Amino acid sequence: MPIITEGFSLKNHNTFGLDVSAKWFAEVHTEQELQEAILWAKEREVDLFLLGGGSNVLLTQDLDCLVVINAIKGITVLSQDENQVLVRAAAGEIWHDLVVHCIHEEWGGIENMSLIPGTVGAAPMQNIGAYGVEIKDVFVSLTALHRETLETKVFSKDECQFGYRESVFKRDLKGQYIITSVTLRLSKKPVVNTTYGAITEVLDSKGIAEPSIKDVSEAVIDIRRSKLPDPKQIGNSGSFFKNPVITVTQFSELKKQYQIPGYPQEDGQVKVPAGWLIEQAGWKGKRLGNIGVHDKQALVLVNHGGGEGSAIYQLAMDIQASVQSQFGIEILPEVNVL
Known about the structure:
The chain is an alpha+beta fold. The protein folds into three domains: 5-70, 2-Layer Sandwich (Uridine Diphospho-n-acetylenolpyruvylglucosamine Reductase, domain 2), CATH 3.30.43; 75-187, Uridine Diphospho-n-acetylenolpyruvylglucosamine Reductase, domain 3 (2-Layer Sandwich); 235-337, Alpha-Beta Complex (Uridine Diphospho-n-acetylenolpyruvylglucosamine Reductase, domain 1), CATH 3.90.78. It is 25% helix and 25% strand. Strand 6 and strand 7 (84-90) form a beta hairpin. Helix 4 (199-205) crosses helix 5 (213-227). The two termini are 27 Å apart.
């Protein structure tokens, strides 16, 4: 049985650094402890909230529930041949630690997602992605525990219904399952992807003409660190908003008024950078007391210290309204608000 602590501060368990409390708190290291925590909450008719790395959540108030940290670890090779390897990672593993491990083993496929904060278990929930790669590109399956029946179910890629920063676990099955492990198919003969963002530019500056997966990873890390603030230095959750996808017609109309960047999608629509929209609306670098918008990346909302989650949420809504008013585009949070 995991240790249940009452009145536990979550300040060190969310990257915004917000000092809110959980009425009860537990950290689980095995699936059995996870089941015991679920039963503990059921017996007392207490809600249970699973908290990963705390990098994709905005806590606006104290939580009147049992907050559980999934600390189940382990990386296992299920099968391999000369071309590929199937790797299962426990949900409590830190995502970037998994990336580093795979690069060390020379398994390619997730190097472009280096330094994305959070845990492995949270990764498929929102189909994490960066620099031209998403987890769905290497995803095989996941195992998850049903909160009510405590039965384990294996979900295939199709069953996860991946979309842009979403999955079935954020829609139809929201709150029903707890992911316990994820299986990925990685390449032993990787072909690197350097087409997105400034990766090629960074590699060129280092004089690297034929990059390895480690080179690509290090380039991505350099770019992310130059754009995104370290949560240890200033509270933030990385990109707060999703990049909106609009119709070609709407994009063409906006092009008549603005030098708006856009990226054509497979479905015929156009993805527009939310950071560009927010910056054009005048929010970049704006500070409101202890909170604000980062001065280098308008997608990032920050807690300068002593800020409150409710104030950050109000700022996010004000930004949404401003962008909607100026461009007629709705930008949606990527962060879960509690």
